[in-house]
Specification:
576 residues, alpha+beta, Nucleotidyltransferase, domain 5, GIY-YIG endonuclease, 4 domains, four-stranded antiparallel beta sheet, 20 helices, 16 strands, 17% strand
């Protein structure tokens, strides 16, 4: 049995990273190589070596990698290094980030050193990310690792990058196995789609009516006029396009309307089926989950975001974490405040918090300095960039800032109360200049927070049961938010009658969601694949504040659940 026919679960992989001298074409030479054996979803042996070069390194490469010309003068010859590495690659699958580059560098180096090239099949972690993390916009090695909750200590050195690449493979391998049974199937799944040839001149001038007539629309007779998700499939039943609507039948037909702009997938659509939800919010969540599961070709660009909200977020896996503003919540161990409706106001809020608590104003990458920055000289930053700051002191200041948004009270009110108490303390200590500055800051914050549309609170604070009703009937979707995640959701059958069985089902699922809430934790852990679900539900609540919800800070009672359903029922217009 060849390597391509080997079961993916039994295959061995070699995660590889190559550093070069930064020169193009034939002048490109290997300067360092790192390799890690991956098997059974775990990392095993590793290999690392510098490689002697004939041409000098560019200054840019030396600054980027930290590899100097002096280090390579004592390095072994390429023939010795590649002669030791080549047996590692035989009978195994090469894995790399931008695998075509590393494969070309190694093959070229083997040809120069007269070492037999094993020609292993290659899997690219970039292709894995495109396939299984379609919402991850930044796919550099460090950004991708961060999205998967993988800590990265060093970049642009061969062995650390190979280790990171191996860990990314281990994180995404279970998803790959669900779509491919063998190595050959995995390579076919991840290979880029072939570009279609340019149509001939005769075909290009064909009338539009004739081109439209060649595309027969699927049968829409069975589609309902209810909220849900519709799925167009080809002749083999494979998903081509997933969409959502509050009226599945109307929206699905619109793709084949005479004036519609048709995608390339419409010519292959043979059937259409659907999955009903009870609300538009349920349709949004289900659409996103199905697109992530199937990655259909018609959804290469995901559906537009429900709004343009942002989050103030803080990743706690950094030694000296920073507050930042981004469109999505941060994955991993983090505090995410929002969603907030105005990006400029959110940026100013971060600036105010940084100055109040002496936090870093710079980016996540901490650059060492010989002298404090302008903020440090003004006393508005603790200046960890000088390298002599106790991390515990910085963490204490950071915790003081974040605790304003993770408690039971409103974050905006708690922030104003904190500044006011600081102002009174400064006045009591006769520090009148500081008290006056805090008074001006308090006035600005009142104006800023008053116009900051959204939820000024951490996403994992105040767990809740959210109920979204059918726009016309008495059905509803229930969503359980706990610990910063969408723990459970679903459409409950029947109407809104609060029968005993319905209430017991709600109570059981609520207890299960509450048990997953971490106790005494400043931050929540958010898996990267659930970032968009939190964004969708949080954005919906921010733009639909009237949506009924029940706080889960304490265990709910049967009576409180019955009252919640009665509230939802009252919002459904009678006679519809």
């Amino acid at each position: 049995m060849g390597l391509l026919e080997q079961a993916l679960a039994e295959a061995e992989f070699i995660a590889v990273d190559c550093e070069t001298n930064g020169r193009p074409g034939e002048e490109c030479e290997l300067t360092e190589v790192g390799a890690v054996l991956v098997g059974g979803g775990e990392l095993h042996d590793s290999f690392e070596s510098l490689v002697a070069v004939r041409r000098p390194l560019t200054r840019g490469v030396q600054r980027l990698t930290g590899i100097s010309q002096a280090m390579l003068e004592a390095a072994p010859e390429p023939r010795d290094v590649l002669g030791e590495l080549a047996p590692w690659l035989g009978g195994r699958v090469l894995v790399a980030h931008s695998a075509s580059f590393d494969r070309r560098v190694l093959r070229q180096a083997c040809q120069r050193a007269e070492v037999a090239w094993p020609d292993p099949p290659a899997i690219c972690t970039l292709a894995l990310a495109r396939r299984f993390l379609p919402l991850q916009r930044h796919r550099g090695l460090g950004a991708l690792a961060g999205a998967l909750g993988i800590e990265v200590a060093t970049l642009h050195r061969a062995l650390p990058d190979a280790l990171t690449c191996g860990r990314i493979l281990c994180a995404l391998l279970p998803r790959l196995r669900t779509h491919a049974a063998t190595v050959g199937e995995a390579l076919s799944l991840l290979s880029p789609p072939r570009r279609r040839s340019r149509p001939s001149a005769a075909r290009a001038v064909a009338p539009r009516e004739e081109a439209v007539a060649r595309i027969s629309a699927p049968d829409f007779a069975q589609l309902p006029r209810d909220p849900g998700v519709y799925i167009f499939r080809d002749a083999h039943g494979m998903p081509l396009y997933v969409g959502k609507s509050v009226s599945v039948a109307s929206r699905a037909r619109s793709h084949f309307a005479p004036a519609a702009r048709r995608g390339s997938w419409t010519a292959q659509a043979e059937t259409v089926d659907y999955s009903k939800t009870a609300s538009e919010l349920g349709a949004l969540v289900l659409e996103n989950q199905l697109i992530k599961r199937w990655n259909p070709p018609g959804n290469l660009r995901l559906a537009p975001r429900p709004n343009r909200s942002v989050y103030v977020r803080c990743r706690l896996d950094d030694p000296y974490p920073v507050l930042e503003v981004a469109r999505d919540p941060a994955p991993g161990h983090a505090v995410n405040v929002g969603p907030l409706g105005r990006r400029r106001a959110a940026l100013e809020l971060v600036e105010q918090l940084d100055s109040l608590f002496g936090l870093r104003h710079c980016s996540r990458r901490l650059v060492r300095r010989d002298h404090p920055s302008a903020y440090g000289q003004m006393g508005r930053c603790l200046s960890p960039c000088l390298g002599d700051l106790d991390p515990n002191l910085y963490r204490a200041r950071l915790q003081g800032a974040l605790e304003l948004f993770v408690g039971e009270g409103d974050g905006a009110e708690l922030l104003l109360t904190h500044v006011e108490s600081e102002m009174r303390a400064a006045a009591g200590a006769r520090r009148y200049e500081r008290a006056a500055a805090l008074r001006r800051r308090l006035g600005r914050l009142r104006s800023l927070l008053g116009g900051l549309d959204g939820i000024v609170q951490a996403t994992h604070a105040r767990p809740a049961l959210v109920v979204a009703a059918h726009p016309r009937c008495e059905g509803f979707d229930a969503f359980w938010l706990a610990g910063g995640r969408l723990r459970d959701w679903g459409t409950l059958s029947g109407g809104l009658e609060a029968g005993r069985g319905r209430l017991e089902e709600l109570l059981e699922r609520t207890d299960r969601a509450r048990r997953a809430i971490p106790t005494g934790a400043l931050a929540a852990y958010l898996p990267a694949e659930e970032v968009d679900e939190v964004r969708i539900v949080s954005g919906w609540l921010a733009s639909h504040p009237e949506t009924p919800r029940l706080s889960l800070d304490a265990p709910p009672s049967i009576e409180s659940l019955r009252e919640l359903l009665h509230t939802v029922r009252a919002r459904v217009s009678p006679g519809t």
